[in-house]
7-cyano-7-deazaguanine synthase
Amino acid sequence: MKRALLLSGGMDSTCLAFWRRPDLAITIDYGHKAADGEVRAATAICQALGIEHRIIRCDLSMLGSGDLAGTAPNPNAPASEWWPYRNQMLVTIAAMECIKHGVSVLEIGSLRTDGFHVDGRKSFLDALNALLSMQEGGLCLDAPAAEYSAEELVRVSRIPMDILGWSHSCHVSDYACGHCRGCRKHYETMEAIEIAPY
């Protein structure tokens, strides 16, 4: 069974890359502000771990909103970084690449604490898996860390800090801004595992 990982280069997907060692990692530049930083991080992580890496570029910046798009948040946004239908879009694009490589399972880095966003909840991921499973190709969606918080995932994965250090969590820039929700989550997780973020 061949497995792929949707690898943003952020802390959570980096931990999954080390822990799960997928056959293939897929990084998507969809026109968001931090795309170059994410691609740089994901590339370094895959090189360090010997994972085959595919980068897909499709500029959807005109469809985005909030921090990730560099615009004002949409009125429906539960948080400033909300991009409409983002996880659904990322999984769909990654699934298209998976079919080319004979992948059976696509893994995504959703955590227990991601339920703040509807598309991070188990019910949503189950529905998305059902949608994929009923189509040609027999692809399944899995969220192996769905029971964990970011801190718990770091500990369970046993990822070394020299690999985790490549991760890029910022929502607004190629380099950590230090202020967005992504950077704050990164720093808070590092502090929780007793690693100074600076």
Q: What stands out?
A: Residues 3-192 form a domain with the Rossmann fold fold (CATH 3.40.50.620). The chain has one domain: 3-192. The longest strand covers residues 24-29.
